[in-house]
Design brief:
Shape: elongated
Structural class: alpha+beta
Number of strands: 4
Distance between the termini: 35 Å
Length: 177
């Protein structure tokens, strides 16, 4: 949704500016954790609850985090709660990750495989993909048996689909034409 991305961008950029002055990796993990917590339906219910004060909502949210909470983190979350933007954290997290990847010259790679891959297979696949896409990749692997065989890789807006399902669909289109 374009509106969410537009509203989240200034928050992500501000958070990224703070993170680069400290430990970027620790901040990345914290932002990811906050995004995960904010994406839980109960968090939206809590954020929309008029009976809770800003301080109560902030404290409850921060209590769910396992990472250490600094004054900067508390102020950031309180600002989001005050502005009714706590549920925007998943989008803020995604944009933060994009900024981090841009600085590191890396990209996220979503790899969907028909079968579970061993760590060695993932490592070999990532090595080949990094040479193809000419950048470091941060892989996340999922399994989808409907692919029948092969893999589907999404890096940014580029898709590499070598699955059997994709090949069958191409053949179907060619035969139907």
């Amino acid at each position: 949704m374009a509106e969410l991305a537009t509203v989240a961008r200034p928050y992500a950029e501000a958070l990224f500016r703070v993170a680069v002055t400290g430990n970027l990796q620790a901040w990345s993990q914290l932002v990811s954790e906050m995004a995960d917590v904010a994406s839980v339906p109960e968090t939206k219910l809590m954020a929309d609850n008029p009976r809770l004060t800003t301080e109560q909502t902030t404290e409850i949210f921060l209590a769910t985090l396992q990472s250490p909470v600094t004054a900067e983190v508390k102020n950031f979350v309180m600002m989001l709660v005050q502005n009714g933007r706590l549920t925007l954290l998943p989008e803020i997290g995604a944009q933060f990750q994009q900024l981090k990847n841009a600085q590191e010259g890396a990209a996220d790679a979503q790899i969907v495989s028909a079968f579970a891959l061993t760590p060695a297979q993932v490592q070999d696949l990532v090595a080949v993909l990094e040479s193809k896409f000419s950048r470091k990749l941060n892989p996340s692997v999922t399994v989808d048996s409907s692919l029948i065989g092969g893999v589907r890789v999404v890096v940014g807006d580029q898709v590499l689909d070598t699955s059997v399902r994709a090949k069958l669909q191409k053949m179907h289109v060619a035969l139907a034409a």
